[in-house]
Amino acid sequence: MSALSQQPYFLRALYEWCVDSGHTPYLTVRVDKQTRVPQAFVKDGQIVLNVGPSAVRNIHMDNDWVTFSARFGGMSHSIEIPVGNVVAIYARETGEGMAFEHLAQPEVADDTPQDMLSDSQEDDQAKPPQPPKGKPQLKVVK
Fold first, then answer.
1. Residue at 68 is within a domain
2. With bands split at pLDDT 50, 70 and 90, how would you rate the model's confidence at 7?
3. Alpha-carbon dihedral of residues 27, 45, 99, 48, nearest 10 degrees?
């Protein structure tokens, strides 16, 4: 018998605490192929979501998934998040909450030996991603 993860229980408890305290619960989510969120709002493989009662409808948190409906840019979207992809839950007003460790999923092994890669493939793997060029763009949100 495998041990149950504590993460979904902490998520539900902290969500309830935020709402009962009059705070706005936010989720930081790691986005992958199983995560169903509007891709236009994903930054650096993550998305931050306001999951307060006034921002979402039909929120449901079970041991495997967090699901709800929310509006992005005026359009309604059905959101589906594997519990293991939740990086953190916190109160917007105070920053109090909890971050979770990412348990790496086993990746499909690449059977190509390193000595079989071309020089350009080796260079691509060694270079870190370059930051965007130009002036940073920030918006004041009230």
1. yes
2. very high
3. -20
pLDDT at 2: 64
Pairwise CA distance, residues 15 & 61, whole Å = 10
Domain count, the chain: 1
Q: What CATH number does the domain containing 67 carry?
A: 2.30.30.220
Residue 93 domain-assigned? yes
Residue 109 lies in a domain: no
CB 8 within 8 A of CB 61: yes
Q: What is the pLDDT averaged over residues 48-63? A: 96
Domain ranges, residue 82: 26-101
In DSSP notation, 92-137 reads TTT--EEE----PPPPPPP-S-GGGS-HHHHHHHHSPPPPPPS---
